[in-house]
Design brief:
alpha/beta; Dihydrodipicolinate Reductase, domain 2; 2 domains; eight-stranded mixed β-sheet; 34% helix; binds nicotinamide-adenine-dinucleotide
């Protein structure tokens, strides 16, 4: 069978994980890349022996490929994905699918109308800890979920906002919630597995007051239709990128993910599952970019349903969008 031809738009930080995954997959062939900064596009072109572009529309029109990876700033995800899907390309989009839920819905409709795959890069669902937790929830070994608590406490100083998109409402769409916490919010909704009824959130600036437009701290109470409530806190004002903390309270015990996964049953018996740490990726990004990308290609080739398809990846956008609306309306 012919190899899947891969193109990547956005040759910045995270794109390296995408280039490597596509390059190492023997069912694929990297064919093109694009970045508005010519040196960045050229560097990837040299490294992988592929054609480079500085204009996305030109790459779409002139390059023959099957799958587009989108690794650009948030505000470009929806228009780039829609343009590519309307040309029959499958799209693997970095998180968030879009800044606004309505745009994520439009992306899903576009994927369906063109009969192509749309993926959201929530690679942490593929972490062993997440898969273990999902199995635990499904097995109902500890009963049903009653409540969830999540904390993301990371470190971003002024340097992080020195490019033209971080810290801007127009291009990033928000701060710690839409960029960092969205992964954990996605895990929470995926594990709870029920429709989101309401989000009551608040946002604030603590470290870079007045220097950027976006929030560096936020909290929320999220209610699901099965009665589960999730309490969430996220900040970029800690002096370290701490491990994400996630507690799932069941009817008959609890599961706590923090460095390791600790499961405690109603009798107080504890099972500790040591989690493998990454050596070659930023720890806080998780280690599963290659795994989710390989799975995406496999689903396209074998016509299987993909775990984090557009509809599934849109739920977190709906929570994020709702949280901002709630916070702004107070
Ligand atoms: N899944 C994860 O864990 C994870 C981790 C980091 C970043 N991300 C996401 O990846 C995306 C990119 O983040 P990053 O850290 O790599 O940012 P970055 O700023 O390092 O890279 C973005 C690149 O897009 C290029 N670009 C901007 N406008 C363009 C255009 N019109 N056409 C072509 N290229 C254009 C920029 O020149 C830049 O090289 C964001 O959506 C971010 O949220 C995801």
């Amino acid at each position: 069978m012919n190899k899947l031809r891969i193109a990547i738009v956005g040759c910045g930080n995270v794109s390296k994980m995408h280039f490597e995954a596509a390059f190492e997959n023997d069912k694929c062939e990297l064919v093109a890349c694009c970045d508005i900064v010519p040196e960045k596009a050229e560097a990837m072109s040299q490294l992988y022996g592929i054609k480079s572009f500085t204009d996305f529309d030109k790459m779409l029109a002139e390059s023959d490929f099957d799958v587009l990876h989108i690794c650009t700033p948030h505000y470009l995800h929806a228009p780039m994905a829609i343009a590519a899907m309307n040309r029959g390309k499958h799209v693997f989009c970095e998180k968030p699918l879009a800044i606004h839920y309505e745009d994520a819905v439009r992306m899903c409709e576009c994927a369906e109308n063109n009969n192509v795959y749309l993926a959201a890069c929530f690679q942490n669902r593929y972490n062993l800890s997440s898969q273990y937790l999902r199995d635990l929830v499904k097995s109902e070994k500890l009963g049903k979920i009653v409540a969830v608590k999540g904390n993301v406490t990371w470190d971003r100083d002024e340097d992080y906002y020195s490019d033209d998109w971080h810290g801007t409402l127009e291009k990033e769409g928000g701060g710690v919630i839409i960029n960092q916490c969205i992964h954990t919010l996605d895990l929470i909704q995926w594990l709870v597995g029920s429709e989101v009824l309401s989000v009551d959130g608040s946002i604030s600036q603590k470290r870079l007051k007045g220097k950027v437009e976006t929030e560096d701290t936020a909290d929320a109470l999220i209610k699901f239709s099965n009665g589960v409530e999730a309490l969430f806190y996220g900040t970029l004002c800690y002096k370290s990128n701490s491990s994400v903390f996630l507690e799932i309270l069941f009817e008959n015990g609890k599961a706590v993910m923090y460095d390791d996964l600790v499961i405690t049953d109603e009798k107080g018996n504890r099972e500790v599952i040591a989690l493998k740490r990454s050596t070659d990726a930023k720890n806080y990004w998780g280690t599963s970019h290659k795994i989710i990308i390989d799975d995406f290609y496999d689903c396209i080739i074998n016509k299987k349903e993909f775990l984090v398809n557009g509809n599934s990846g849109s739920v977190a956008v709906r929570i994020v969008d709702g949280l901002y609306k709630s916070a702004r309306k107070k």
